[in-house]
């Protein structure tokens, strides 16, 4: 779904209710228009496409059901409608469901439950949420926090296991503060102490052997933007002292130089280590810890947010295919099940490696479960997993059978439906459900 078609049309004349919904939509990263009258909303719905309409039934100039029925009478292709209703209007809401409305909620309602309904519509399973970090409640809370942090200059510490996507979260925060400004990332654990100092603060010409010219460090390169220091816990103590001084004085001195250079950066640090333990055992300075840890964001491992696995996998497959100029392969139902069943100790980094390998080994159209791993696929545990696996296996078999039948009929829908003994409409429904497309499934 394109960004333009992810927009929500909110129709609510109550200022308190509207402000509450608007604030939450903004924190969740949803794009929306807020209309206070039915007339304004009607004009907007005739003018542009929306992914979803959320409308109160009682409006000052017309009722929500009258608006919905007017649009139906115009034979328009309508987005899903969710109606907000009081107990006295439930009969109306039920009638609207019979006419094609998506759902209704009664006042007072659980805002979290409404957000789940919205996500199911504008970011269905298999798609990342509007903020691009994930569908899980944990990642949506982090996205909401990023919107709050964007208005401040507080230093942020992002924690979590290796490979969970800490840099992606840092970049998301940076983009909320201004995409035109620089975002510079450095892995503190990948450089020796001397190289790290030169990388952070730069150096003057002739400062050391090989310094043939003056070079700006990442502090200067990130001036006005965001400096992301990954694996800050691996920074040597002597460098921690110099970093603390630079943060306190908001200026740096290049290696081999004497002149202070003022810098203005937003600092975001990340680590997979427990820095508090490092403070206790003397490996990390306590004053620096509190300086960089104004706000801490913990990114859960992938195994704790299973609902994010498929959306992330689909996004990664699209990126992998784009890099090679190919169409992204689909994941078979059994492959999707295998992805969700595996614990991913290496998190997103391991998932990306598995998908890159599987993309190379696949036929270019789809990825079956048996090529996802360079070892036996994860075993299934429990009755529910076995049942799910059987459904996935049967769906995969049905898909393969229909694709071969379509190929035998040169992709003539009516002829294939006749050969399968089903109706044309039934065949179309199965093709849509199983993701069968002539462009990707034909030889």
Helix content: 40-55%
Spans where pLDDT lies below 50 across 5 or more residues: 380-388
The proportion of residues in beta strands is 5-15%
- Cα end-to-end separation: 27 Å
Spatial ordering of strands, largest sheet: 2-1-3-4-5
What is the count of distinct domains? 3
Number of helical runs?
A: 19
- Which geometry do the CA atoms define? globular
Task: Give a short account of the largest sheet.
Answer: 5 strands, parallel
What is the CATH class name of the largest domain? Alpha Beta
CATH topology term of the largest domain: Rossmann fold
Radius of gyration equals 27 Å
- Tell me how many strands there are: 16
Structural class: alpha/beta
What is the overall pLDDT average? Answer: 85
CATH superfamily placement of the largest domain: P-loop containing nucleotide triphosphate hydrolases
What does this structure look like?
The chain has helices at 15-28, 38-47, 64-73, 90-99, 111-122, 137-149, 166-177, 193-201, 218-221, 237-249, 275-280, 286-292, 309-324, 333-341, 347-361, 382-408, 413-420, 424-434, 438-441; strands at 8-11, 32-35, 52-56, 81-85, 103-106, 156-159, 183-187, 202-203, 215-216, 226-230, 251-252, 261-262, 266-271, 295-298, 330-331, 366-367. The protein is an alpha/beta fold. The chain has 3 domains: 3-122, Rossmann fold, CATH 3.40.50.2300; 153-298, Rossmann fold, CATH 3.40.50; 393-443, Arc Repressor Mutant, subunit A (Orthogonal Bundle). The strands form 5 sheets. A 5-stranded parallel β-sheet has the order 2-1-3-4-5, with helices on both faces. Mean pLDDT is 85; it is low at 380-388.
């Amino acid at each position: 779904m394109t960004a333009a078609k992810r927009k929500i049309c909110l129709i609510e004349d109550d200022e308190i209710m509207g402000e509450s919904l608007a604030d939450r939509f903004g924190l969740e990263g949803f794009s929306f228009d807020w209309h206070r009258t039915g007339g304004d909303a009607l004009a907007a719905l005739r003018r542009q496409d929306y992914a979803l309409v959320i409308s109160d039934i009682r409006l000052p100039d017309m009722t929500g059901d009258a608006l919905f029925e007017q649009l139906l009478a115009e034979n328009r292709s309508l987005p899903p409608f969710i109606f907000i209703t009081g107990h006295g209007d439930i009969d109306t809401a039920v009638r609207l469901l019979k006419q094609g409305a998506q759902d209704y909620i009664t006042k007072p309602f659980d805002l979290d439950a409404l957000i789940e309904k919205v996500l199911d519509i504008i970011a269905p399973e298999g798609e990342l949420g509007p903020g691009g970090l994930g569908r899980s409640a944990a990642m949506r809370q982090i996205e909401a926090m990023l919107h709050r942090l964007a208005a401040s200059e507080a230093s942020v510490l992002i924690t979590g296991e290796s490979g969970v996507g800490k840099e992606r979260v840092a970049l998301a925060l940076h983009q909320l503060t201004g995409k035109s400004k620089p975002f510079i990332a450095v892995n503190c654990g990948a450089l020796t102490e001397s190289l790290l100092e030169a990388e952070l603060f730069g150096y003057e010409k002739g400062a050391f052997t090989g310094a043939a010219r003056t070079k700006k460090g990442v502090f200067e390169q990130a001036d006005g933007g965001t400096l992301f220091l990954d694996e800050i816990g691996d920074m040597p103590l002597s460098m921690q002292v110099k970093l603390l001084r630079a943060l306190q004085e908001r200026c740096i001195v290049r290696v081999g130089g004497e002149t202070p250079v003022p810098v203005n950066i937003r600092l975001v640090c990340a680590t997979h280590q427990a820095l508090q333990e490092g403070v206790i055992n003397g490996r990390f300075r306590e004053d620096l810890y509190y300086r960089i840890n104004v706000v801490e964001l913990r990114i859960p491992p992938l195994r704790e947010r299973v609902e994010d696995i498929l959306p992330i996998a689909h996004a990664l497959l699209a990126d992998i295919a784009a890099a090679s100029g190919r169409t992204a392969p689909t994941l078979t139902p059994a492959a999707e099940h295998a992805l969700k069943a595996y614990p991913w100790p290496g998190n997103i980094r391991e998932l990306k490696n598995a998908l890159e390998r599987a993309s190379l080994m696949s036929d270019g159209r789809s990825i079956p479960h048996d090529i996802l791993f360079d070892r036996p696929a994860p075993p299934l545990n429990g009755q529910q997993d076995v049942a799910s696996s059987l459904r996935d296996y049967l769906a995969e078999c049905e898909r393969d059978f229909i694709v071969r039948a379509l190929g035998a009929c040169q992709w003539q829908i009516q002829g294939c439906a006749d050969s399968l003994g089903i109706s044309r409409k039934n065949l179309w429904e199965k093709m849509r459900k199983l993701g069968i497309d002539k462009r990707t499934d034909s030889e």
